Structure formats: C-alpha cells, structure tokens
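input
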Amino acid sequence: MTTCFRQMKIVAVFLCGLCLQGMVPSAAAQSRDAQNEGKSLSQLVADLKDRDPAVREQAAKALGALGRRSPADVVKPLAEVLQDENAKVRLAAVIALGSIGPNAQEALPALKLLLEDGDGGVRRAAVGVIRRITPRNVPDRPRDTTPKPAPPHPTKLHNGKTVDQWLEQLKSANEKERVEAAYQLVNYRPSAHIPVEPIVAALKDPSAKVRADAASAISNLGPRAKAAVQPLIELLEDPNFEVHSAAVDALGNIGPEAAEAVAPLILKLAKNDTIELKHVVDALGRIDRKGQSVQPLIIVLKRRNLPGDGLNRYKAAVALGNIGANAKDAIPELLAFLRNDDDYRDGAAEALGKLGKGNEQVAAALAAALKDSSVLVRKTAVISLGLIGPVSNTHLPAIKTLLNDPDEDVRQAAAATVQRLSRGGRS
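output
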C-alpha cells in the first residue's frame, strides 16, 4: 500500500510539472523554430549539406514535419543524409523518416544499412522506424509475453566465437575487448541462446558503451529478462544519453513484467527531450496495463509546441491503445485527435480500434474517417472498424465503398473488415 501511494504521489507531482513544461517551449526550442521559420523546402534541403552539423540536424527535423504532406520531395534527401558523418544528424534523419510513415518506403534500403551503425542510438532508432514505415495490411496479433527458458548454449560461431566465448570476453579487464563483446552480443542471433545473468552484470560496467550495448542485448531477450528490471530502472538516471535511452527500450521490450518501471518512466516524460520522449511513451504502452500512465500520455497527446511533437502524439495514441481497457478514459481525446487536421491522426484511429469495442460514438468517428484524404487514415480506420465488432455493421455501406479505393492496401483492409464483420466481428 505504501509503495502504491508513493507511486501515485510521484505521478501527481509529475502531472503538474508536465502540464507546465508541455505548454511552454524552451528558449532553445524557440530559437531553433525561429531559425527554420520562413525557410522553403528547397532551402531546408540545401541546409542538409551545410558545413555545420547543427544546421544539418535542424534541417532534417524540419523536413520530417513537412514530409507527411510532401513525401515525394523530402524522402530522397533525408535518405541521403542517413550516411552523414555526424551521428546526431543521422539520428535526426531516421526520426524524420519515421514521422513520414509508410510514404518513406523508398528509404528502407538506406535505413537497413544503419542496423550496423557504430552508434547504438542510431541503430535502435533505425529498427523502430523500419517497423513503422513497412506497410501492414492487418493489425498485429497480441504478442506472447510468456517468459520462455533459454535453450542450451549452442556451439554456433558468431564472428569467430561462440556465445560463451563472447560472454567470457565481456569480463575482460581490457575495455576495448568488453566493448567488442557487448556489441557482438547485441547482434547475436538467436538471442534466446544468450543467458540473462551475465548481461545484467554488464549493466554496471564502467564503460558507457558496454552499459548501452548490454541494455540493448537485454532488449532482445524480451520478457525472460525480468531479472534486469531493477538494474535497468537505475540506468534511467545514467548521465550518458545512449545508456539511459537503451534502458528505456529494454524495459519496454520486457513488457508488463517490468510494471515497477511505470512510475520512473512517467517521471522521465517531464524532460522535454523530443528524441527520448517517444521512446518513453512507447515503453509505457508496452508495460502499463493498469492505466497509471493514461493521464500523462493524454498530456503528450495534446502537445503541439515543440519540434517532434507530431510523432510524439502518434506514439502516445498508440501507447494508449496498447494499454487497453484501463485507458478508456482517453477515448474523448482520441476522438478529438482523429477529427483534427493532424498529420498523425492515424495513431488515433489505431488506438480507437483497440479501445472502442461496442462504442457507437467510436464507430461513427471511424466511419467518418473512411473519407479522409490520407491513405493511411482510411486504411487504419477501416481496420479498426473491424476490430470494434458488430457495432460497425451500421457503417457497412461506407466500408464497402473502400473496396473500390484507389489504394490497394486500403482495398485489402476493407475486404478483410467486411469478412470479419460477416463473422460477427471474430478474426
């Protein structure tokens, strides 16, 4: 009871702080916005080749905001920047492409090259963005989060060594050897062959690179890494950005088994770091099943002041949908989000499909979205109408009009929804 009360108190204090911070842009953010204000698309593309990496980074961020409306003019220049010598510029370009969504598919080959990038933050961002922009015709099935025991260690070689040999090298007194071992363990497949305990121990390594890659390796282990939850929570305050960002991702991939991390993650939302915010929001959506983070996520859903808030709103909507039944208080805000002329409103459509079962108001809003100018919104809305069940039958005529939609993905999604509703809403 004491722990629960303390967590509620933490969340209450956080909400006050986030309301204030979310509504007032920082001086640095205002300065960056002023620099980009009035610049044409061609000027921003030219800035991608500026000698100053800070200018290139800000240009990439600004182009991400424009890209949802003009992807054809933005995707190719951003894809070229993925090879920039500066990691912050590469990261900004990756995030910008993620904000564009499936219309950035042309950049997939260049993004996949970043899976071997020397910067851990860039690698992790590339993984998420590749998932985001790869088209899907049907909603994901719920992920099986049941912990599974690791099979016996294999003798398979990975870059010349077995997993046990890399684990032994992780204990080396030589920092370079430990860094190499940690990096190899992040990329070792199948990750089910890697035991949890040695990686958890590496989270306390004096080298930030080792700590970051150890957290990334744990992220690959999923729910069976529950023993790493407390050490990862401690890393949330690590001074190194790459380390605490990797810790956030790892906690998210552990899922509901990391429930004790919800309150510390909510506190991290108050830090107006656009890059980290989306990771924290995503993690909360994967972990929280009791609805502790619903109100903080609703605040993120309303943010419009800072660069990158569009993608953060999308992430917040999806996270609320993932929380499930305990996030139904967010439905009014999600309905408002869907009705707004917002480039990220497809996130609201996706969330409403998970929260609006049997809700006539949700069904009506999703049916209205079937006429949206955005292919992504139409497709997501028609999928969600199938998910909320027989309450959508009233809107079958509107759903069937999408069987003739100009976009093939939309037509396929509409056909799947018609079939689903004919079976009473069952998959």
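quick obs: Residues 20-37, 137-142 have pLDDT under 50 and may be disordered.
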